[in-house]
Amino acid sequence: MAAPEIEQLIQLLSKLPGLGPRSARRAALHLVKKKETVLQPLSLALQRVDQAVKSCSVCGNLDGSDPCSICTDPRRDDRVICVVQDVADLWALERSNSFRGRYHVLGGTLSALDGIGPDDLKIDQLVERARDSGVEEIILATSATVDGQTTAHYIADCLEECAVLVSGLAHGVPVGGELDYLDDGTLSAALTARRKID
Amino acid sequence: MAAPEIEQLIQLLSKLPGLGPRSARRAALHLVKKKETVLQPLSLALQRVDQAVKSCSVCGNLDGSDPCSICTDPRRDDRVICVVQDVADLWALERSNSFRGRYHVLGGTLSALDGIGPDDLKIDQLVERARDSGVEEIILATSATVDGQTTAHYIADCLEECAVLVSGLAHGVPVGGELDYLDDGTLSAALTARRKID
Fold it and tell me: Where are the zinc fingers (C4-type) (chains A, B) (predicted)?
């Protein structure tokens, strides 16, 4: 057995997603061996995140300021709000560099199995934002799973009273994807939504 | 892009063994979302390890005290020293609960490729310890790799002048291992070292 301090570190590391008991042990040993270059900077970064990062009261993004830097960015388009399940999805869209509007993070999807109802998600706040006269379109970018699509349909119903266009992401063949490896649902959606090549 | 504090955390996490950029991002998000239950305990554990854990001046083990708890344990056998490459190997042997002597952590193996010579390993300290009249056997438990075995042979030469028995781990079929999946070297070693079943 390692020292109790190290055992505790291993235990905490092994609870992180993507780390099992074995890799947590390797990571802990790496940290202990490189105190100055790895452990101390990580410890500092954790404290900084702990103090600085909070949830944006407008969109639910995690950032060092509230409202977050996306909500306060004057170069972004106020007219379009993209609704995502999770902050990770917001990050993915930001990495793709293809969206210049605002976001709204739901915090999950409706799920009968997990007992997540409309009140557990930030749907009321979204409807509130949609009522603003400046908003013209709401893009529902929830996952293409059953729960994600159920949530999208539910939100679309909630937004019916608002004067906004409600849209969803296109289905189709992923860029770089091989047809042979695609599921039937995606192939059929890609065929149905086929486009004229010009 | 996420907040700079989070980006820095992702960057530091992705340098840990077993975590790539993608899993580091997932781990960071998990940490930020569960500040009280995950981030703060981990931050505390890192600070505790940083302050408490040091390298044992006798054997090279990492522990909260120096000499370490294994070196000072009165129930352990002073007559046998097991030589391992790394603290991780010491942990593995301790988990197997099959050795009750003392340890000596080399801190690596001789390696011409990586430019690691005898002076970079704790070999002098081992010879010093072996000169003690109480030590009867030194078990060289380095890896069964070329570098590990080279190191073992080198150490065996260094220990020739000392009045100690120098031994190595047995080679053979791993317990639970299937013959079909074993390499030729292991199979041939297991055959050569075959034992009468009684």
Answer: 56-71
What pLDDT, on the 0 to 100 scale, is given for residue A147?
A: 92
The answer to whether domain A62-168 has CATH 3.40.1360.10 is: yes
> Quick one: A4-52 is in which CATH superfamily?
RecR Domain 1 (1.10.8.420)
Cβ separation of A17 and B30 shorter than 8 Å?
yes
Q: Quick count: other Cβ atoms within 10 Å of Cβ A46?
A: 25
Contact criterion met (CB below 8 Å) for B39 and A50: yes
Say if residue B191's pLDDT is above 90: no
Other CB atoms within 10 Å distance of the CB of residue B41: 17
DSSP sequence for A95-154: HHT---EEEEE-SS--BTTTTB-GGGTTHHHHHHHHHSTT--EEEE---SSHHHHHHHHH
pLDDT score at B1: 67
Contacts of A18 in chain B (CB under 8 A): 18-19, 23, 26-27
- Tell me the pLDDT tens digit for each residue of B106-129: 999 999 889 999 999 999 999 999
Coil/strand/helix, residue B181: helix
What topology does CATH give the domain B77-168? Dna Topoisomerase Vi A Subunit; Chain: A, domain 2 (3.40.1360)
Nearest to A15 among B12, B16, B38 (CB): B38
